[in-house]
Structure formats: C-alpha cells, structure tokens
Amino acid sequence: MNSRRDFLQKIAASAIALPLLPLAGWANSSNYEGPVLRVAIMGLGGYGTRVAEAMQACKKAKLVGVISGTPAKITDWQGRFSIPEKNCYNYENFDRIKDNKDIDVVYITTPNGLHHDQVIRVAAAGKHVICEKPMALNAKEGQEMIDACKKANVTLLVGYRMHFEPKTLEIIRMRKNDDFGKILFFQGLCGFKIGDPTQWRLNKQLAGGGSLMDIGIYAINGARYMVGEEPTWVTAQETKTDPVKFKDGVDETIQFQFGFPSGAVASCLSTYSMNNLDRFFLNGEKGFAELQPSTGYGPIKGRTSKGELTQPHVTHQTVQMEEMAGIILEGKQPIVPVNGEEALKDLKIIDAIYLAAKTGQKVDLKLT
Ligand code: NDP
Question: What is the rounded distance in angstroms from the CA atom of residue 342 to the CA atom of residue 337?
C-alpha cells in the first residue's frame, strides 16, 4: 500500500453506500468522470488559502464560491480561482446560499469562536458543512452544531487532515494488525512559538483558549487514533511564563495525561512557547512507532520497530478534500472518522483538560 492510488483504493474498499446521495456537479474530464463536490470557502485567511490552492489538484472537489468579510479578497479570489459573482457572499448575506444550486458544501476556515454560529447558519441554509478544528469552543457548542446539522439533514465534517495521511494510516494499520502488541504508552508533543500578541489566536473570545485549542488538539486526537481507544480519565497541569501575552483563559503551556480502558496511558504537551515540538511516539509490548514531524504539513517522517515508513508525501488538504468528496457524495467511510461526533469527543476532552488544570483534580470521562 505504498502509492497514493493504493491508499485511496484502500479507503474506497471500506466504503458503504448511503441510501440517498445528494445532487452534485458532474465532471467530464479525460481522466475522471463522476460527481464533483462544489465547495465554497468561508474566511479567506491563511488556511482557507491553503485549502483553495490544494483543491486545484482535486478531481472530486472544486472551489466554486467564497464567503468573506473583505471585498478586496473576494475580487482577488474571483480572478485566481474563476469564481462567478453569483457565488460570492459576505457574513451578512450568506444565508441566501440556500437558493444557490451550484454550491454543495461550505468549508468554514474562520477563527474558532465563529464556527458554532456559522455552522448552524450553513446547516439552516441546507448545505453540507466542513468546519475547521477545533469544531467549537466547548462540548456544549459542539453538540448544538451536530444537532443543527442532523435537523437540517446535512453532513458535518471537521478538517482533520491527519486522518487521511498515509504514514499515520500505516501506523494505525500496523497497530490493528498487532504489530506493536498490547499498547502501553503514547506521547504527543505539539507546539510552536507564537508571534504577534494581537492575533485572534491569543484572544479568548475568538480562540476559545490558547495552545490547547489550536495545536494541542492534535495530541488529543492523535492519542485517540494511535492508541485506538477513548480515554477514561484526564489529569492536566498548566504553566504560564508570560501572563501579559497569554491573558486569563489563554493557555500558554499545558501538560496532560490520559488513561485508557486497557491500562495504556498517554502523556502530552501543548505549548505556544517552544519550537520544534511535533512528535508522536507509540509504545507497545512488541514494538513502537514514531512520527516526527507528526502533524505539520509534511513531509511527515516516521519509523517503527519494523523499519522506516516509506509511504509517499501527499498534500494533506488535497487528499482530505478528495476523501471528503467521497464521504459526502458517495457515502464512503473513512478509516478514522472525521464527523461531528468525532470532533465532539475532542471537545469533551478539551473541557476535561481545562477543568483538570484548573482544579488539580483527575477528571473522569465517558466518551463511548
Ligand atoms: P487567519 O487569521 O489566517 O484567517 C481567518 C479568516 O477568517 C480571516 O482572514 C477572515 O477572512 C475571517 N474572519 C472573519 N471574522 C474574523 C475575525 N473576527 N477575526 C479574524 N478573522 C476573521 O486564520 P487561519 O486561517 O490560520 O485559521 C482559521 C481556522 O482554520 C481556525 O479555526 C484554525 O484553527 C484552522 N486551521 C487549521 C489548520 C489545519 O491544519 N487543519 C491550520 C491552520 C488553521 P475574510 O477576510 O475573508 O473574512
């Protein structure tokens, strides 16, 4: 399973068909004839731009619309991506997207604190939603978003790009194949030194917290898919060296630990004040796996007790959008879920980590 085509075929093999498939555009190019997911991006910032550029290499997904608060960006994107005027919206009028038959899904890449209301509005307009991580600021918001999408009968997916990354999936395959034996320990180190103190990532209202919401979530999510279980308890400790930059409710560094039903444990670090922290390590009775870098844009590098991981580098956002098109249009099932329920588990864990850090107490979790 070394090539990207094999990887995609592997995912296709686990597909189950949905009884009702949504309407979509139809491609008719020389090498692909099939349904195409027509995507509008909301929030034309750093990550939205990355997704838009990556989608240009997709066969099954196409950028067709934008939602932005910045008119100059809309004009720029119209030119760069050939987006017609009728598919351009702002934050005041995007509810009208419900009358637009040429858009299937809205991909929300705005600051975290806006996701809840925007997902609910997109769902009410009858469009599928892809929302960036973290899906919301807390589990309560996350549940409301899931309920709104269910009520509107639209699909809610979350931009967990690592769930489609070939080396990550190979470790998951090997763990399921018992190559590492009984899993005993996971370590996740996630962090970077954050710059500009005025950015939204350091604003409690827009970010919902600090490093944990932004980068620590990779260690939370990674612990779950690497160990292959849901944690049943959490402990956490917070340290702050710069209370001016990292105000109340904006965490600079948090260390947290999980316990799993099998007895495996995890130890993780999330920080906004150290560079070169992007590492996963999984240890079992018979072997180990490590990824470093583990969640950056790549190339991801890794090895296991059986040798180097040689799966090719892919552009994460291209593969993610191809696969998400398959999920929405064809009812495909990803190996690691990317739906609202998956994201809600991370939000419940985030709530528990903040509570554990605040109280100093072990917090029990019930995620299954
Ligand atoms: P940026 O600040 O680069 O872009 C956010 C965009 O949202 C802005 O450019 C703006 O676009 C729009 N926006 C609307 N309201 C506001 C507001 N009040 N303040 C600031 N921006 C606003 O952020 P990122 O692109 O880095 O992050 C966006 C989301 O994507 C976050 O949830 C983040 O966690 C996630 N992300 C995910 C990554 C991944 O690998 N999966 C990587 C990076 C980010 P406009 O002018 O068009 O309205």
Answer: 6
Pocket lining: 205 vs ligand 1, CB cutoff 6 Å: no
Q: Per residue in 77-117, pLDDT tens?
A: 999 999 999 999 999 999 999 999 999 999 999 999 999 99
Tokens of 255: 């260390």
Cα 112 to middle of ligand 1, angstroms: 8
Q: What is the pLDDT of residue 23?
A: 57
Residue nearest to atom 40 of ligand 1 (CA): 161
What is the number of the ligand 1 atom nearest to the C-alpha of 73?
A: 47
* Domain membership flag for residue 43: yes
Task: Tell me the two tokens of residue 7.
Answer: 């990887």
Residue 128 falls within a domain, yes or no?
Answer: yes
* Pocket perturbation via mutation, ligand 1, pick of 47, 49, 78, 297 by most ligand atoms within 8 A of CB: 47
Query: How sure is the predictor about 31, in pLDDT bands with cuts at 50, 70 and 90?
Result: confident
Encode pLDDT of 290-332 as tens digits. 999 999 999 999 999 999 999 999 999 999 999 999 999 999 9
Q: Is the pLDDT of residue 46 over 80?
A: yes
Task: Using the 3D structure, point to which of 134, 159, 184 is the last residue of a domain.
Answer: 159
Helix (H, G, I), strand (E, B) or coil at 364: strand
Q: Are residues 84 and 45 in the same domain?
A: yes
pLDDT band with cut points at 50, 70 and 90 for residue 5: very low
CATH of the domain at 241: 3.30.360.10
Task: Out of 137, 159, 181, pick the residue that ends a domain.
Answer: 159
Region 181-190: mean pLDDT is 98
Q: Choose among 179, 169, 175, 130: nearest CA to 4.
A: 169
pTM of the model: 0.93
Name, in order, each residue with C-beta under 8 angstroms of 104's C-beta and a sequence gap of 6 or more.
22, 23, 24, 25, 37, 38, 39, 127, 128, 328, 329
- Give domain status of residue 115, yes or no: yes
Tell me, using a 6 A CB cutoff, whether residue 288 lines ligand 1: no
Query: Out of 60, 62, 127, 133, which one is annotated catalytic?
Result: 133
